[in-house]
Amino acid sequence: MQTSSALCNAPVVSLQAPACDGSNFTQRDEILEVNQMKKLIFQSGVLLLLLTLMSTGHAQNERYIPVFCNQGHGIQDAVDRATEGATVDIWGTCNEAVVIRTDRIRVSAISGQVTFINPPGESVAFTVRADNVEISNLNITGGTSSVLITKGSSATITNNHIFDSTEMAISIGSGSYGEISGNDLSSTIIGCPFNSQIFLAGNAAADILNITINASSGNGIVAVANSSAVANGNVVSVAGFSGIFIGANSSMAFFASNTVNNSGGSTIVCDAGGDLGVFAMQNVTPGSVFVDPGCELDNVAGNVNFFPPAVNGTFETGDLTGWTASGINGGFAVVSQEGTCFSSNNTVGLTFNGDFAANVRSSGPAPTNSIGILTSDLFVAGSGISFRALSENDDGRPAADPVTLEVRVLDGAGSVLLSQIVTTNIVTLSTVCPGGDLRDGIFSTHIVDTSAFDGQDIRVEFRQHTNVAGSGFFTLIDDVAVNP
User: Fold this and answer.
1) Contact 67, 74 (CB under 8 A)
2) Section 201-208 average pLDDT
3) Which long-range contacts (CB under 8 A, 24 or more apart) does 415-423 make?
4) What is the mean pLDDT of residues 346-374?
5) Exposure winner among 89, 258, 259, 451, fewest CB in 10 A?
6) pLDDT at residue 197 tops 50
7) 466 close to 370: Cβ distance less than 8 angstroms
């Protein structure tokens, strides 16, 4: 096709009338004239068609934009072109980190098609900085986070399969709101203890509806820093820090039935200054439920099974909340802190799972009948009680069997239902603290079968005494949990 400049400089074909004798008119002249006219008409038509497409077709694309990632299309380009109310439909495997800045757009998989969003490296698949955005029907994997709603934005995240994010699956912050519904979340969370499948912070709010969380690490749902959430009909199963965590100045309300369990740590944690509302019957695995005395608990449903008086099994309160310490002939129980001296031997090198553990031991003079006792508050029995333990030995008087640890299961009246002697791992420490070598030990894990008492109110009691007269060896107890 000729350019406009070429057209302007083309030789002009004479359109003068032919002489009567035909001297200035030939067949060749006629053919040239007709061809030139056809070319001009064709070029004008093409130009008109292009202008029509640009003025009408592109406007239609801004309202509905299909993206075929396997053909090199880009999601970011599509959402940048989209006008309010537009739909961006995606198909294929897309390796992008997308920022959405336009209100009221919908980003979804093309109907019936399997679509994967895999952001590169340590990036976020979708960052929402607009209102009334919808992200739906996608498989979102990888990156540090799948969805981040921030800067006062709002979005509905629905019917997605989100997996293998490394920090947060869905994060809401900076005064933003999210409706999280019908999603399946199974990311492998690593790093910071607050990392979670759903994370709210900084005046964030969310309605969390009919989701399934099945994760082997991290937390299920976390609300901190003046955030709030309403939870209806969710199933939260984790093996990490906590199923649900509510921090200071934050709140979470449970309405329609939710199922929460955690095989690795606490099921529910409501910290001091938090607000936890229970407005319908819930299905929460007993044990490892910690409601700080400073947490405002609105147990309107009267669901006593939801919040049984439970074991503060991690002792991360730094005290014996939920437990009673006692002893025979000077024996005692306290909470000890990692990295400190809590024996005449060097304990500075011992590594805890957290900052604190319970310390049960004989008295300083250490006759073998000096028994330290630690007894839990009542809780509802499950199939078993699990805990971790580590006992002391020293270089000065090493012993093959330095302590005896007895675990008792008691009924509500204090009668013994079960008694079991447990052989724990041993750490041999150098004498004098501080001083000597820094040594670490490995806690052993133990499970006491309580299936015969399933559903009953029980207590667990630890009794320890030294087997070496004059050496008041300790036993550390940590991560006490009730198994479903």
Assistant:
1) yes
2) 96
3) 417/452, 417/453, 417/458, 418/448, 418/450, 418/452, 418/453, 420/448, 422/389, 422/446
4) 92
5) 451
6) yes
7) yes
Q: Is the pLDDT of residue 11 over 50?
A: no
Measured CA to CA, the distance from residue 52 to residue 49 in angstroms comes to 5
Q: Are 87 and 112 in contact (CB under 8 A)?
A: no
Confidence check: pLDDT of 22 > 80? no
For the cut 90, the answer to whether the pLDDT of residue 129 exceeds it is yes
280-285: average pLDDT: 67
The single-letter DSSP state of residue 302 is -
**CA distances (Å), 261 to each of 296, 313, 447, in order?**
22, 15, 18
Q: What gap in Å lies between CA 330 and CA 372, rounded to an integer?
A: 8
Exposure b/e, 156-184, CB count within 10 A at least 16 = b: bbbbbbbbebbbbbbbbbebbbbbbbebe
Q: Which two tokens stand for residue 382?
A: 């499950």
**Continuous segment of H or E residues that includes residue 181:** strand 177-181
Write out the two tokens for 277. Answer: 């509302």
CA atoms within 13 A on the CB side of 398: 7
Measured distance CA(109)–CA(19) in Å, rounded: 72
